[in-house]
Amino acid sequence: MIRKVMAEIDVKYGIRQTLQKIEETYTKRASISNAPKPLLVAVSKTKPVDLILDAYSVGQRDFGENYVQELVEKANDAKILEHCQDIRWHFIGHLQTNKINKILNLPNLHMIQTVHSVKLAEGLNKAWEKLKAENAEKQQKLNVLVQINTSGEDEKNGVQPEEAVGLYRYVLEKCPNLNCEGVMTIGAFGHDYTAGPNPDFSTLMRCHQEICSTFERDPAELRVSMGMSDDFVQAIEAGSTVVRVGSSIFGARAKKPTDA
């Protein structure tokens, strides 16, 4: 059954089509913004390793995973380690503090996109400091994004928009082992664009601007991670510089139980 499903999914085509849409939308946006071309993070959660290999074979390097145990298994997979030596893993799910060490010890971890609290930032900072002392390959700062709950939904993680500057300040001033590259949101699903712009995108861009103004950062240097398969074009139009695309590349996902 898995082979049959994989045969019906053309991941290489999905990558090329997604990159083409990113390029087209970015080109249109470039006339009014100096923000960099958006980075494509291919969201491979619940998908088999062979599909990741397909995406990697056409130049995709950044991959996103939502579940701790699944990322642990994939990052340590023999095929991945042999054939995808330049892969960059982005963790884009909810990270509990008791799972920090499982994530940080992984090969080719590039970024934690979901720093949603002072407690998590503090835990990551301390754990990374310890790893740096023990591992010569972990001497760079850990890349992170501040996650903001732009939709106000209880089931979504992230600080409230009015707390975004405060969490960014904490990471900047109190977490010397973390490199806060920007902001991210998941936002509400299914926005009707015939009714106007996505308010979650507008809110995240406002938080981005407040952080840049407060800390005198160049807006083009502070990443904005928003937009998924259904709305990454609109997200880029709104200012996104990181899009997280899964089903448009890998096909629809099977349901997965909550990560243990």
TrEMBL record:
Residues 19-253 form the Alanine racemase N-terminal domain. GO terms for molecular function: pyridoxal phosphate binding. The keyword Mitochondrion does not apply. InterPro entries: Ala_racemase_N (IPR001608), PLP-binding_barrel (IPR029066), PyrdxlP_homeostasis (IPR011078). PANTHER family: PROLINE SYNTHETASE CO-TRANSCRIBED BACTERIAL HOMOLOG PROTEIN, PYRIDOXAL PHOSPHATE HOMEOSTASIS PROTEIN. The modification N6-(pyridoxal phosphate)lysine is found at residue 45. Pyridoxal 5'-phosphate (PLP)-binding protein, which may be involved in intracellular homeostatic regulation of pyridoxal 5'-phosphate (PLP), the active form of vitamin B6. It comes from Anopheles dirus. The keyword Chloroplast does not apply. Its cofactor is pyridoxal 5'-phosphate. This is Pyridoxal phosphate homeostasis protein. Belongs to the pyridoxal phosphate-binding protein YggS/PROSC family. Keywords: Pyridoxal phosphate.
